[in-house]
Amino acid sequence: MISPTDLIRKLTDVYAKNPNSNIGKLLRIISESISEVKEGFEKIERWRDIDEAKGTTLDQIGANVGQKRGAASDDVYRILIKSKIARNLSKGDVNTIIRVIALAVGADYSDIKITAKFNDPLEPEPAAISLMRLPLDKLAASGIELNQFVQIIQKTVGAGISVQSVELQGTFEFGGLPETVDPATGFGDVNDESVGGTLGAVYQAGTNTDLPI
Looking at residue 195, what is its pLDDT? Predict the structure, then answer.
């Protein structure tokens, strides 16, 4: 915020620099208007960032990259825009798919593992992939539904390639011997929600809301 004192200091010495003088009172009025304009420009600058933009400003960013909002909230729409930008540059290879997923849910590349199904020992598929590893908490924190997340992946892979399965990792596990205790991976505590691991999930086609991708 620009204060009247800041403006008064900028006056040359031919002016009285008393805040209660007429020029001081005038600058007090002007400083409020200048501050409002400054805050407006700062907001415009911040909202150029996808992570900061909201509402119709976010719609305009999405329109620039050809991504419609549909019924998505601002949080989900940001994911769609980021993944759309990555998909526009996608070569359809595994590394690009990992990059899109990482951008969509805020995960590290090392958190994600993708397996081609053509050499699967049990159910080989010539044109299919499986997302074998992704932390469930990352997807949950993003606010996007699993079915919608699979749509994003499907739009990223090459033409004719299908997404067979998605396995999301939880943190729950049984202890080994000798007996060990880890409050982040074992059973929960009804009196303390911070204790206990989380279960994973496996993708199954459902009737969730489709995204405009």
Answer: 64
How would you write 63-97 as a 3-class SS string?
A: HHHCCCCCCCCHHHHHHHHHHHHHHHCCCCCHHHH
Residues sharing a CB contact under 8 Å with residue 138, sequence separation 6 or more, in sequence order: 105, 106, 107, 111
Q: Give the model confidence (pLDDT) of 130-170 as tens digits.
A: 876 777 777 777 777 777 777 777 777 777 777 777 776 65
Q: Helices 74-88 and 146-156, interaxial angle, to 10°?
A: 20
Domain ranges of the chain: 4-46, 92-202
pTM: 0.57
Cα separation, 131 vs 181, whole angstroms: 30
